[in-house]
Amino acid sequence: MDCSYYDAGRCRSCTLLPQPYDQQLADKQRAVEELLPPLPWEPPIASPQARFRNKAKMVVGGTVDAPTLGILDRHNLGVDLQDCGLHEPGLRQAMPVLAEFVTRARLTPYDVNARRGELKYVITTESPDGELMVRFVLRSEESVARIRKHLPRLIEQLPRVRVVSVNLQPEHKAVLEGEREIVLTDAATLPMRVNNLTLHLRPQSFFQTNTAMAAALYREARAWTADSGAASVWDLYCGVGGFALHLADDDRSVTGIEVSAEAIASAEQSAQGMGRQVDFRAGDATAWALEQQQAPDLVVVNPPRRGIGPELSGWLDGSAAQRVLYSSCNAESLARDLAAMPSYRPVRGRLLDMFPNTTHYEVLVLLE
């Protein structure tokens, strides 16, 4: 992939960009195999190198009249990356309109060094059907009235916008967003069509940034467990319900657990729209599992980078669950968790290149 930003030294986020893509993929596969126990590996699933990201998390810098949407340099000054080649086409087309909106609504970019200003980030997500969710991360409510005033013009210029919201993050720290979200449109969810299902994404719900790889991940999970005979399934760290809804059918009872109430609300809406019977609950995955008297036939875990940890690993190791399907974005924490579950043996593995041009990836492992 050619990138003028990388060539000019303006952005080096894609650390592997100079490497041929085949080499990137082979190096990732080799690194994962070195960390994990020996197991049968299926060929890695490659991603497009460009135009694959469905979400643009743009730091806002510069001034009201000349805003930058992109990243901050080492001096905390804005670097404009509106034409980033990783973003899906609809996101790239929206960037100039959003930059113009910052000026029109007089949204003062937040100055990290001076600790003043209002607008910290513009976060935009594109669905497979081309609809957009736009979120303005603000320091306070000072600018909300102006955003409301100029919103009709924004939607006129970007008719594919479905959801617009404001997130309030008043603290000066490296946390992307705050707890409070103000939805400014009638629609509050972005439908994400994945395989044959439609997942409803709320502003604070997590979804994989590579839609094609997310779809492949869910297809693999469904295929690997289709003949397992599992009548009961837990999807721990279920997010918006991607795994749970792909594994649900009339012959299975499926329960999804996720700490984010927003994500659970999204999952419940998706299940209702699909006519799927899934029991979604908001709560800590480890605490909830440890309270249960009986384990299911199949446990799916898709934790953050830190992994599931010793408590849940130990509980699973002593449980009666016949299979564990582990989706990991960090083979180091995955290796630690597998070592804490000696009762299980990995029987199948596959790497999915969720994040091309970087050292990151997703790994799916089936344990029996």
Topology:
Blueprint: H1 4-7, H2 21-35, E1 55-62, E2 67-72, E3 78-80, H3 89-104, E4 119-126, E5 132-138, H4 144-157, E6 161-168, E7 180-183, E8 190-194, E9 197-201, H5 211-225, E10 232-236, H6 242-247, E11 253-258, H7 261-274, E12 278-282, H8 285-291, E13 298-301, H9 309-317, E14 323-328, H10 331-339, E15 346-352, E16 362-367
Parallel strand pairs: 5-6, 10-11, 10-13, 11-12, 13-14
Antiparallel strand pairs: 1-2, 1-4, 2-3, 4-5, 6-7, 8-9, 14-16, 15-16
CATH architecture of the largest domain: 3-Layer(aba) Sandwich
Helix share of residues?
Answer: 25-40%
| Termini Cα gap | 40 Å
Beta-sheet strand percentage? Answer: 25-35%
Order of H and E elements: HHEEEHEEHEEEEHEHEHEHEHEHEE
The top-level CATH class of the largest domain is Alpha Beta
CATH topology grouping of the largest domain: Rossmann fold
Structural class: alpha/beta
Based on CA inertia axes, which overall geometry fits? globular
Q: Main sheet?
A: 7 strands, mixed
